[in-house]
Amino acid sequence: MISVEDALAHLFALAKPLATETIGLSEANGRVLANPVAATRDQPPFSASAMDGYAVAPEGVVPGASYTVIGEAAAGHAFDGSVSAGEAVRIFTGAPVPNGAGHVVIQEDVDRTDQIITVSDRLGRGTNIRPSGGDFKVGQTIESPKILRPNDIALLAAMNVAEVTVTRKPKVAIMATGDELVMPGEAPGPDQIIASNSFGLQAMLRDAGCEARLLPIARDSKSSLKTAFSLVDDADLVITIGGASVGDHDLVGDVAQDLGMQRSFYKIAMRPGKPLMAGKLANGAMMIGLPGNPVSAMVCGQVFVNPVVRTMLGLKDALPEQQTAELAHDLAPNGPRQHYMRARVDNEKISVFANQDSSLLTVLSSANALLVAPPNSEAMPKGTAVRYIPI
Ligand SMILES: Nc1nc2c(c(=O)[nH]1)N[C@H]1C(S)=C(S)[C@@H](COP(=O)(O)OP(=O)(O)OC[C@H]3O[C@@H](n4cnc5c(N)ncnc54)[C@H](O)[C@@H]3O)O[C@H]1N2
Ligand code: MOO
């Protein structure tokens, strides 16, 4: 058995960043920006009015001052001329501020009679003008690598960037294995259960930015497993679930090796997730063989599969983010395996669930954290600061 850290080092050695592709902005949300992008213009490209009102010269704007309205500027329609002392241009939000003007008096702060406006006692502070380039200037960059979120997409669009270069999505094939499994919606026999963690992992992988597809469930026979492996096509990563332990029907490792898998490691000193294996398949795809217990598979997804995917996507911080919280209760000593305990963090205090059996999806679904108890850690009293992974 190797440590979690060693297992991660082996996985990072197997996982290589994928090639890039250029896509339209509408497709870019959630994708990983591969190259820095520079603004091709200033925003705003001119001094712009922030309010509806009257643009006047900046000097002498005081209650009682009067101006003659000489024209209009609206968004997309600049005033063709300039403003002199005693003159005002009717202006609307987003319009270019005319030459000579340096102050927009909002319309609520003036009294208007025909073409004459008079500044009232209500005059507020500020010029109500957004300076040219006040948001960004030509050449300002968005750094990479970066997962693009809706706010970034809006910024890229404003920068007049219509296409971006992103890392291509990792293609992942997920293979559930076991004679006992049927698909959700099917009628299970009396000794059957529903394949669950394959769906959980598919969701997790899609969230992480992958194209993740489910292979047909492989039965506990070498021929069925071989058939399922023959369907991995051009996957970058093959995830098997179950059949990883030492029982007579746990054949995944043997079959993968028969098919030319070069094993990197097998078994990790962790709970849950001990019988995890990883290696490289004959076609060059990376393989991670997850244990079948539903919680084990999902926890290994968080601890190992997501970091592998983030590495393939070219992201720098591949490891799951860890945070600290105070124990809400005493914690018993840990055994020799690093324990990822299903827990809840509420108001910065963390409590672990009483039952940590690796089959309990109800517990996992109620959890929002995995408390990381290091190997052989001693008993910890309530109030001790502990590390956890938010989930
Ligand atoms: N004698 C030993 N027995 C076991 C050991 C051991 O060291 N010595 N390790 C235990 C540990 S730890 C784990 S974890 C499990 C993992 O075993 P496998 O990876 O071989 O998983 P299976 O036996 O195929 O399944 C375990 C459990 O999970 C259910 N399962 C499997 N796949 C799915 C799926 N896609 N969706 C939902 N549930 C699934 C399966 O029905 C079993 O109940 O081995 C221990 N045994
Ligand atoms: O370590 Mo297993 O992964 O008990 O569930």
Automatic annotation (TrEMBL):
Q: Which family does it belong to?
A: Belongs to the MoeA family.
| Gene Ontology molecular function terms on file | metal ion binding; molybdopterin molybdotransferase activity
Assigned EC number:
2.10.1.1
Domain MoaB/Mog: residue ranges: 173-311
Which pathway does it serve?
Cofactor biosynthesis; molybdopterin biosynthesis
- Pfam families referenced in this protein's UniProt entry, alphabetically: MoCF_biosynth, MoeA_C, MoeA_N
Record-level GO cellular component terms: cytosol
Q: Which UniProt keywords apply?
A: Magnesium, Metal-binding, Molybdenum, Molybdenum cofactor biosynthesis, Transferase
| One GO BP | Mo-molybdopterin cofactor biosynthetic process
Cofactor(s) recorded in Swiss-Prot or TrEMBL: Mg(2+)
Q: Which residues form a coiled coil?
A: none
Q: What does this protein do?
A: Catalyzes the insertion of molybdate into adenylated molybdopterin with the concomitant release of AMP.
Is Transit peptide found in the keyword set? no
Q: Which Gene3D superfamilies match?
A: MoaB/Mog-like domain, MoeA, C-terminal, domain IV, Molybdopterin biosynthesis moea protein, domain 2, Molybdopterin biosynthesis moea protein, domain 3
List the catalysed reactions: adenylyl-molybdopterin + molybdate = Mo-molybdopterin + AMP + H(+)
* Protein name, UniProt field: Molybdopterin molybdenumtransferase
Entry-linked InterPro entries? MoaB/Mog-like_dom_sf, MoaB/Mog_dom, MoeA-like, MoeA_C_domain_IV, MoeA_C_domain_IV_sf, MoeA_linker/N, MoeA_linker/N_sf
Q: What is the main EC category here?
A: transferase
